[in-house]
Amino acid sequence: MALGRSFEDMCAQMYYRGKMFGFVHLYNGQEAVSTGFIRLLQPGDAVVSTYRDHVHALSKGVPARAVMAELFGKTTGCCRGQGGSMHMFSAPHNFLGGFAFIGEGIPVATGAAFSSRYRHEVLKEASPSGGLDVTLAFFGDGTCNNGQFFECLNMAQLWKLPIVFVVENNLWAIGMSHLRATSDPVIWKKGPAFGMPGVPVDGMDVLKVREVAKEAIERARSGEGPTLVECETYRFRGHSLADPDELRKPGEDVDFKLCATLPCCIAFGLMCKFFGFFISYIMLKHSSLKGIIRKSKRSGCCR
Amino acid sequence: MLGVARRKIGLGTFSSPILGQVLQRIRPLGSVLPENYSTAAKEITVREALNSALDEEMSADPKVLLMGEEVGEYQGAYKISKGLLEKYGPERVLDTPITEAGFTGIGVGAAYYGLRPIIEFMTFNFSMQAIDHIINSAAKTNYMSAGQISVPIVFRGPNGAAAGVGAQHSQCFAAWYAHVPGLKVLCPYSSEDARGLLKAAIRDPDPVVFLENELLYGETFPVSAEALDSSFCLPIGKAKIEQEGKHVTITAFSKMVGYALQAAEILSKEGINAEVINLRSIRPLDRATINASVRKTNRLVTVEEGFPQHGVGSEICMSVIEESFEYLDAPVERIAGADVPTPYAANLERMAVPQVDDIVRAAKRACYRAVPMAAAA
């Protein structure tokens, strides 16, 4: 999470200095969702994301240097500079992109989950995870009004695919408020309409996200089928670095910020949960918070 | 190879009685040259050719699967996948809900993992609901991922006008898909084309758009023993010279190849020897064969069923100008569908789609043998 935040902040700096260009969408504020879910995955599991994919890639294990180089358009980037900010791909990490069109990644993720089941049942290949390889599809609140979302909820449940649909509901689709765009804004309730469980979770609390994620991923892995998880979160920056972000009220993020500023969240977690449990899943080798942040800044920054 | 294949339209195999009736109405006038090839082992319909290709490839590689509407229990909307569900089971022949965007994307996602899905569109008009996945998540991914992820997927189905199905069911998408880098676009004509090109498409590591033609499904063509072998495969990007000639080159694909061959026969009676090229592959286009032919004949007529603006003929014309300009003795003639949404009424539809006469007239114009339409001023 610390790496994700400092990485995104560095992207903003580089962008405004003209080193990065085009469309860049930052993940500031939503780190708990990425960490809470992706850090639970096995290497054979897959992640499909949207254009807001930098931190998802980092969580999945793509080296920060490779992601940053990609943003700079260099051949040392994970896609040799050919993909860019919105199209991060890494086959060794099973990170399947990086899609610009909202909703586009959902069928692709459903297909990856389909292939996981196919490989297990038709080709009789055993996965090292002991069950089915799981796919996570990340997308936003705006996507939940798109036809492809519903088509895939239907087919994933119909064919009992090992997928978790993770909604990062940050209440805003560029400048369109979720409440203005959606007839029924409660997204997790749409899961049961297709026969799958729908679960809401506080997306600013990494430990709560992890708890829900654990159950959903295990469900998928054991072949019980998909889950729809709605993470209530917030993005602290605009939709993209080119977004003037004039429509959101300035004080709106206060509630989210109280829980989500990095030191605060981690400290809160430290106080509320067992110390050992916390350390063991965030970063194994570091003993201090300052150490974590220092190391992430060093490894993440491009030299 | 050389000459016109003897064809008969197998009406009995059509599942829809309406289609059968309409096909009778638009059967080509006059008999086709019945050159019998005693060396040809067998005659099969395009439908049988496609079915056997699917069957053999699914049998050879367990990663090949078929997904689409009505492909399973209905035996295929046009019976192309007949018998496959019974043979391979519902895990490999999947009947989908009516969700083109969804199931096309699912096919693409599965292909990211090395499965080899064949996505069937009931007609390519419906592919427009899924075109984002064909282009953005299939065609472009190998490039965007710098070669990390290849997408060995085939999108197939009938393309172009059928008979009286109206504007929304009649469009030809060859030019649309051939426009996109990262896609391969194939258009078979005969049964041999259908078998060889579909097998090549399924074995290809990149996304392939395979444009069939509904009106050709029931047509019978002779196939050699070699073509019936399960290892048979045609190269992608290679056109076939159906008939050699020396006065004018006529390029065509899919159903128009048949029309071009008929036109060539009519022209030969007037002393014009036409060379008919069956393109087979729209992307990559076999520019070498086309240009070699034009350098020999010095005149070119391009034929396609789709709308004229930005069509396949435009690209062929440009290719010839770029590579063989000095060899042209006449402007390139372009025959395409009318620039209008396809009408429903049979007589209007006939006027909206190229007919044999149009090709004959264009060839004569290219040979400076045209009869003026209006009296001179």
Automatic annotation (TrEMBL), chain A:
InterPro entries: DH_E1, PDH_E1_Alpha_Subunit, THDP-binding. The keyword rRNA-binding does not apply. It holds the Pfam family E1_dh. One of its GO terms (molecular function) is pyruvate dehydrogenase (acetyl-transferring) activity. Its cofactor is thiamine diphosphate. Keywords: Membrane, Oxidoreductase, Thiamine pyrophosphate, Transmembrane, Transmembrane helix. Residues 2-249 form the Dehydrogenase E1 component domain. The chain crosses the membrane at residues 266-284. GO terms for biological process: pyruvate decarboxylation to acetyl-CoA. This is Pyruvate dehydrogenase E1 component subunit alpha-3, chloroplastic-like. It comes from Phoenix dactylifera. The gene is LOC120103794.
TrEMBL record, chain B:
Pfam families: Transket_pyr, Transketolase_C. GO terms for molecular function: metal ion binding; pyruvate dehydrogenase (acetyl-transferring) activity. Residues 44-219 form the Transketolase-like pyrimidine-binding domain. Its EC number is 1.2.4.1. InterPro entries: PDHB_mito-type, THDP-binding, Transketo_C/PFOR_II, Transketolase-like_Pyr-bd, Transketolase_C. Its main location: mitochondrion. It catalyses: N(6)-[(R)-lipoyl]-L-lysyl-[protein] + pyruvate + H(+) = N(6)-[(R)-S(8)-acetyldihydrolipoyl]-L-lysyl-[protein] + CO2. It is found in: Mitochondrion matrix. Its cofactor is thiamine diphosphate. Keywords: Metal-binding, Mitochondrion, Oxidoreductase, Potassium, Pyruvate, Thiamine pyrophosphate, Transit peptide. One of its GO terms (biological process) is pyruvate decarboxylation to acetyl-CoA. SMART domains: Transket_pyr (SM00861). GO terms for cellular component: mitochondrial matrix. It comes from the Eukaryota. Tetramer of 2 alpha and 2 beta subunits. The pyruvate dehydrogenase complex catalyzes the overall conversion of pyruvate to acetyl-CoA and CO(2). It contains multiple copies of three enzymatic components: pyruvate dehydrogenase (E1), dihydrolipoamide acetyltransferase (E2) and lipoamide dehydrogenase (E3). This is Pyruvate dehydrogenase E1 component subunit beta. The gene is LOC103707828.
